[in-house]
Give the backbone structure.
Amino acid sequence: MRLECRYLNKIFWEGEKETRVISDISFEAREGEFLCILGPSGCGKSTLLRMIAGLLTPSSGEVIYDGERNSGPLNSMVFQEYGVFPWMNVIDNVAFGLEMRGVPRDERYHQSIAYLKKVGLSKYAYRNPHELSVGMRQRIALARAFVNHPSILLMDEPFGSLDAQTRLILQDELLKIWKEQQKTVVFVTHDIDEAILLGDRVLVMTSVPGRIKEVMTIGIPRPRSLQMESSKEFIELRMKIWNCIRSEVEKAMSHDHDES
Ligand SMILES: Nc1ncnc2c1ncn2[C@@H]1O[C@H](COP(=O)(O)OP(=O)(O)OP(=O)(O)O)[C@@H](O)[C@H]1O
Ligand SMILES: [Mg+2]
């Protein structure tokens, strides 16, 4: 699925005071593309993704899927905080979307087990999420998103709360499933290395109000691995992106100092 954002703006009102959070954002994600959106904390990444998902109405501008406007909310978002239902066991969490679509129980369990295997959790199918670690719960969220074969997947810092090792493993699992399914992915992160490791292209946002500062193509061949992080190409890209984002972080910080 192709995604197009045209001149998106978002203004929040708090009483009389208006805050512009997203300012004139336009970009396109191509069919099957892995697009990363990178920006400093608080720059409006989640706000942008929620508008793309149809969970939040833009103040102006348009979100267009495969040339069509207003296609309604998408059921393919993986959130920043883990979003599994604590009252359902693991397999029912994964099967939730299938159940909503009326897939019979045997079939949805069959498909869900297949995806739990892909993320290494089939042994835990009948456990409750609270018995599992945070990393395992994020894996459930991954399996739950992909089992539905969404035509586009929107991910909001899905690995943000994980330790470095678990994060690397899940990034790898995500890339494997993405390669298999070739879905369009829009992946929000504030981690430069993560964006380079995962993305075909990286959109770098400014500090709030979020605009697009730069679009970078990541030419590093796939499959990518951890060893590549020490390659010349990777290091150069990291420096380039960091230089691009540093002034934004500094701007955001001096803004905070002004307010305090
Ligand atoms: N519903 C709302 N009402 C008012 N202000 C909001 C609302 N939602 C978000 N904001 C403000 O918009 C700005 C951007 O928030 P957002 O959550 O989109 O940033 P973010 O880039 O995802 O940050 P982080 O990296 O910390 O997740 C913040 O200043 C936030 O306080
Ligand atoms: Mg966010």
